[in-house]
Write a structure and sequence with these properties.
Blueprint lengths: L8 E3 L8 H11 L7 E5 L5 E5 L22 H8 L4 E4 L5 E4 L2 H8 L1
Parallel strand pairs: 1-2
Antiparallel strand pairs: 2-3, 3-5, 4-5
Length: 110
């Protein structure tokens, strides 16, 4: 709950590390299966990313994807559509998105 009031967002200090299988295993061990929907982190350029947690380590299905009407949209068009400043992109499948700031990426998961 320290990252997001919902308790459904996990923050990594940086991206670039494999996390899905380990996270899913930790959820089982802690009795928390299915409670996390998003992971946020900075990319190599210091921009923020939100990535959806998959239903399993081998699945391409997310527990909760980013909104359908944001998918495949970029930059100013995405800012206008979402009402969130600093939007960079949302992947066409809705599994990942980007924003210039942590505040912006947190708005994307609301």
């Amino acid at each position: 709950r320290s990252v997001h009031p919902s308790g459904q967002v996990l923050e990594f200090k940086q991206g670039g590390v494999p996390w899905k299988e380990h996270l899913l295993q930790l959820e089982v061990e802690q009795g928390l299966e299915g409670q996390l929907y998003y992971v946020i982190y900075t990319d190599q350029s210091g921009k923020w990313r939100v990535q959806c947690v998959p239903v399993s380590s081998t699945a391409f299905q997310n527990r909760l994807s980013l909104p359908e009407n944001w998918r495949g949209v970029r930059d100013a068009e995405l800012e206008k559509l979402s009402g969130i400043s600093g939007c960079i992109f949302v992947h066409a499948s809705g599994f990942i998105g980007g924003n210039e700031t942590r505040e912006g990426v947190m708005q994307m998961v609301d």
